[in-house]
Amino acid sequence: MSLENIYPIFDTILSRSDKEKMLNQKAIVIWMVGLSGSGKSTLARALENSLHEEGYLTQLLDGDNMRTGINNNLGFSPEDRTENIRRAAETAKLFMNAGLITICSFISPTDDIRKMAKEIIGDGYVEVYVDCPVEVCEERDVKGLYAKARKGEIPDFTGISAPFDIPKKPDLAVDTANQSLEESHQELVKAIIERIKY
User: Fold this and answer.
1) Catalytic sites, residue numbers
2) Residue 23 CA from chain centroid, whole number
3) pLDDT-based confidence at 162, cuts 50/70/90?
4) Measured distance CA(174)–CA(182) in Å, rounded
5) Cα(41)–Cα(45) distance, integer angstroms
6) Which domains, ranges and CATH numbers included, belong to the chain?
7) What is the pLDDT of residues 101-158, one digit of tens each?
8) Edge-to-edge order in the sheet of strand 101-105
């Protein structure tokens, strides 16, 4: 079936604002970017728990759960990485339009990829850079991925054999190399709650 036979119904369904009013929260997409081992997923989980305790309805998306489901047919070529983020952004936008606070944890290595995500999501996109240099991430090597990348067992590994563009103007930068997880968590929660109060 060609696209000319598809008829979107967006103008006839309940709006995001209708659902925000019901849920008493402003729906946003918190797009957390940074290197593997920077603390993205840990902070994303902690943020979700804190928001839940405060009575906010959330959805968490990360690279691992997307790649074992919706994106399980994608590899790690530049084209597949772009498609991975495109699908993630479209999924996040659907949750946001349902009134949810959507927390996304993706490496999102290039400026172009992040620009695409922002354009898809539109109003409500909040970029959080989890700032941690590759040297510190490699020391942590939580999943043992850096060791494998150094041995050549993982090609195109971000920060080692594939580029990572440091975000130029994130909405928030959290320095996980020079402050504790709890300090980073509290800084993030404070900044996000200001954005989601109805």
Assistant:
1) 108
2) 22
3) confident
4) 11
5) 6
6) 15-196 (3.40.50.300)
7) 999 999 999 999 999 999 999 999 999 999 999 999 889 877 888 878 888 888 888 8
8) 58-62, 101-105, 29-33, 125-131, 172-175
24, amino acid identity: N
What tokens does 11 get? 């103008």
pTM of this structure = 0.89
The residue behind tokens 């949750």 is 95
Pairing of strands 101-105, 58-62: parallel
**DSSP state for residue 148 in the 8-state scheme:** H
HSE (side-chain half, CA atoms, 13 Å) at 43: 34
**What residue type is 22 in one-letter code?**
M
Place of tokens 């959507």: 102
Among candidate residues 51, 61, 57, 56, the one with its CA nearest the CA of residue 31: 61
CB 107 within 8 A of CB 33: yes
Q: Which residue matches tokens 């659902």?
A: 19
Amino acid type, 103: I
Roughly how many angstroms between the first and final C-alpha of the chain, as a whole number? 41
CA distance 43 to 189: 10
Query: How many Å apart are CA 110 and CA 140, to the nearest integer?
Result: 23
